């Protein structure tokens, strides 16, 4: 998999397949990005499981926080890593020991660890890096367009109905829309600066 | 496998718009509503806390306007957009998110006169201080930078003088100074020029002009390129500091490469106001669908008219970068290879009186103070928009007594030329 740019079909396939997501590094603080993503994905129907050794035993939005992935008593479909890039490798190593093995390793926006990704892929897991599942869900359903965000999708098909007010379905036939190469290039530059510095 | 990216004309028709998910309506519906019901108290809390995407109140967002915002962002190659009540409102919101009282920004002195007024007078009341630079001497931008500088602002093609800014060079100066580069792309429209490709971090528009294109709606837009790192030097507290308005969230950290557009919406538009009306958004959206067709015709007509005017015995000079030999022709070839726009000025040998006579004689040209309409437009700045200035000030503003400005429409070019011909006749 080329981790510089993912086809929409790859991301949509993942978000449509996984049901249970363990979020490593989830925060109970209402103003943290991980809390935003946790709450949004919970509201979109995913079974969300917070993992955070510093908060083990506490709760986020009524969900029990586990210390580590191997403590989670149910099968995990996707591990969402909300830790800095250098912490990704041991998390992937732990995910590889789980039975059943998760299908997907997802690293958040600005997080990228190619060694961890290669290990996960060798173990049969799909990998997404430097993306946020909340933003990708919002983009592919087009919910995020209500905020003026360029979803980079276009479609002449009516999206499938989705329950609730201000909810749009991920099941939407779309073709990729306008590129934002400038932003992608800026991201790459930042990453290179980061890893050099 | 990589995704295929659609072309500009496809985006102009489709970006942001899809069949309405409940009714199947194919044209974008006009959501003429102030407010939106909440599903529950919890849903309301998520919306107000920015934890979910959606609509609360049309001052902050509207589903019709959102289609326009995404479309303009897609055409410019940006990560997100925001529509505003006017081009001037867009500029206020942008600077509100960048400047603290006492800060400075560097601006080209070749700008639309209304922007010069806004920066000189209105912004002074906020203690936002403009420092002027000269696009004819690009190094003047570098010299104008100080520790208080927070941004650089230019137009792509400047109104009305046909000045084309060397954007790639200004972008490098901005990068070295660690400040965002803002480009007003009104006169070019993204069909002719995409400033983000030349290093702009923020693009603003008066949608009133070529994007709307039909002279029926005032509107403005902001596009976030997603290229600026707001947190690096921690100089932009709206973006990089915890916001007390939103329980301490940090917008750059939370929204990544579209954080600036979000800041313009949830901090500036929310608190300052000036949203676009959904009805205007609908009209402008409809206009944008034909932007590529119109701009091609605008530019073809303008080149032909400029050539005809340049050859007229009563004309002293023509300033149109599309003409070979114009001093901005090389920059036009670099930045606007598909046409140098539809607005240009020329000078009449007969001076003030000849200008007054021409605007009084024309019958197809409309004598008014706008540009970027399907109709051909004419104005004699010295007797109208710049009337209150001294002769010296008029000359400095490119509005000397002999100057006439044209905005060429998409009528048959023979009729446009025939009208000028009879207007210039004795
Ligand atoms: C280049 C340019 N920028 C900004 C504006 C201001 O736009 P509005 O009139 O929509 O406020 C104008 C309007 O003439 C313009 O020509």
| CATH homologous group name of the largest domain in chain B | Type I PLP-dependent aspartate aminotransferase-like (Major domain)
Molecular shape of chain A: globular
- The helicity of chain A comes to 25-40%
Largest sheet of chain B: 7 strands, mixed
Which fold name fills CATH's third level, the topology of the largest domain in chain B? Aspartate Aminotransferase, domain 2
Rg from alpha-carbon coordinates of chain A = 17 Å
The number of helices of chain A is: 6
Annotated CATH architecture of the largest domain in chain B:
3-Layer(aba) Sandwich
CATH fold assignment of the domain at 8-140 in chain A: Rossmann fold
Can you tell me the CATH class of the domain at 8-140 in chain A? Alpha Beta
Shape of chain B: globular
**Fourth-tier CATH superfamily name of the domain at 8-140 in chain A:** NAD(P)-binding Rossmann-like Domain
C-alpha termini separation of chain A: 27 Å
Count the beta strands of chain A: 9
Q: Helical content of chain B, roughly?
A: 25-40%
Mean model confidence by pLDDT of chain B: 96
Distance between the termini of chain B: 67 Å
Ions and ligands? pyridoxal-5'-phosphate
Query: What is the ordering of alpha helices and beta strands of chain A?
Result: HEHEEEEHEHEHEEH
Low-confidence stretches of chain A: none
